Amino acid sequence: MKWGVFDSGVGGLTVVHALKELLPDDPLDYLGDTARVPYGIRSVETVRRYAREAAEFLAGRGADGLIVACNTASALALDVFCDLFPGPVLGVVEPGVQEALAATASGRVGVIGTPATIRSDAYGRRLRELRPGIEVHSAACPLFVPLAEEGWTDGEIPALVAERYLAPLRAHGIDALVLGCTHYPLLAATIARTMGAGVSLVDSAAAVARAAAAHEGKPLAPAGRGALRDGGLLRPGRDRIFVTDPGGSFRGVADRFLGAPLPEPEVAVLGPHA
Amino acid sequence: MKWGVFDSGVGGLTVVHALKELLPDDPLDYLGDTARVPYGIRSVETVRRYAREAAEFLAGRGADGLIVACNTASALALDVFCDLFPGPVLGVVEPGVQEALAATASGRVGVIGTPATIRSDAYGRRLRELRPGIEVHSAACPLFVPLAEEGWTDGEIPALVAERYLAPLRAHGIDALVLGCTHYPLLAATIARTMGAGVSLVDSAAAVARAAAAHEGKPLAPAGRGALRDGGLLRPGRDRIFVTDPGGSFRGVADRFLGAPLPEPEVAVLGPHA
Question: What is the C-alpha to C-alpha distance for residues B19 and A44, in angstroms, rounded to an integer?
Fold first, then answer.
């Protein structure tokens, strides 16, 4: 089936990578709202307005299913996508929650994400709903996004930033940590080192790709960021990349997020004045 | 006279602070495009489109003069503001360039800013135009913005980040460094320590405030971030703060940028779908 993948910017390309590992032959349309990224610093109302325009765009292009790769949009506006998109809609919160519940033995789970995702408490609410009594500790980590985009994913600076954000979560004795932002998988090694060996990282990008494969009845092979079989990930023509701002910083970092060369992005116009 | 002050977000409040030190009785309208901040990662076309809508909004509110506090908008779209705003328009580039020329003895000047400002080379072009043969070295410092917004302005992390960005400029032997982003004055102490005693920092926020005072024929007392006489900086009613996204992260950081408590922001609607 043809998937529409929505993200506020470039981060959703980590979902595309995971999706293509599991469903390499499914065509996809990717929409990155690069003219208005990042969503994680905006209000609920603004995110919902942007979500409406994105849902209409991807529905109009005839995707069969929709993946909301953006954690902020999943947390604040999944119902908007469900209302406006005719097919199945997968957000990143539910698959991340499911994998966190499977991963935790202690019942103490951590969640990290953008300020808006953390303020929304979308992961925490769902975790407590499915397992009453679970302990959820969360932290917003705004510096992680520019670190990932700069490619400063290893070394002293990311280690110190991670220590500052994550030490309180470590002190709570969590044994599973949800990476509730599509940028964070690029910092997974540093985050894992900071948290220590006893903490499982739950990559919400990989989790939603597994949920999409499950939706199609495909086997749930673990998705990761390994090399793909043929080196080519997206096929021009079959797979299309749309952005609301064709210039800016997107091109410079997209290949790193996708883990492969990117086809030329096309310009999406959302609403009269997106 | 009544000033309109435009910024992509919260950073322009450093300009408001400097302006109110020099022109405490002038009323002002501040517009922060918080629904679409940051401009520094976007393309020229997108910044110019956003600038058009901002210029029309502030012109419609009857300001006498306009200060474009956003370095990215000043670098990429000052002509848009000049075309659409009936009164005088001051960008941050020209005052910053003038003060850098006054500050340098060696003729080697550094410029730091967002990726878009640095790519535009607006400071470099103007510096070379006014002083042919000047040596300009520049660097984009994307991590500085979230560091300022997190309030991580002192200590090991900002020092390491500053060292990574600024060491190449130091190696070029510059003796003046333009802070070409309104967020950077919050990191001035760290930047100054990193560059060493022989390098003058040129604060483009303070520079444009001095240019505004000069425009009114007021004495050019040095603007800084010192305490204001009466503790009150903006007066509700006389001074108005407009934002395109009233929620999100703006309120949490605005007081720190202004250096004083902020009146309740009002919502500005730019274009039909800002």
Answer: 33
Q: How far is B244 from chain A (nearest CA, A)?
A: 9
Catalytically active residues of A are: 70, 181
Query: What was the ipTM of the complex prediction?
Result: 0.87
Residues of B in contact with A164 (CB under 8 A): 157
Helix (H, G, I), strand (E, B) or coil at B1: coil
Tell me the domain boundaries of chain B: 3-91+207-267, 93-204
CATH classification of B93-204 is 3.40.50.1860, yes or no? yes
> CA-to-CA distance for A45 and A29, rounded, in angstroms?
25
Question: Do B3-91+207-267 and B93-204 show the same overall fold?
Answer: yes
Per CB-CB distance under 8 Å, the chain A contacts of B41 are 37, 248-249
Q: Which of A35, A245, A273 is nearest residue B271 as measured by Cβ atoms?
A: A273
Helix (H) or strand (E) holding A225: none
Beta-sheet strands, E only, within chain A: 3-7, 28-32, 65-68, 89-91, 108-113, 135-140, 176-180, 200-203, 240-243, 266-267
Q: How many CB pairs under 8 A join A and B?
A: 90
CATH of domain A93-205: 3.40.50.1860
Which residues of B are catalytically annotated?
70, 181
| pLDDT, one tens digit for every residue, chain B (274 residues) | 999 999 999 999 999 999 999 999 999 999 999 999 999 889 999 999 999 999 999 999 999 999 999 999 999 999 999 999 999 999 999 999 999 999 999 999 999 999 989 999 999 999 999 999 999 999 999 999 999 999 999 999 999 999 999 999 999 999 999 999 989 999 999 999 999 999 999 998 899 999 999 999 986 655 444 444 444 688 888 999 999 998 877 888 898 889 888 888 999 988 644 4
Domain boundaries B3-91+207-267, corresponding CATH code: 3.40.50.1860
Query: For residues B147 and A41, what is the distance between their CA atoms, to the nearest angstrom?
Result: 14
Q: Which residue of B has its CA nearest to A159?
A: B157
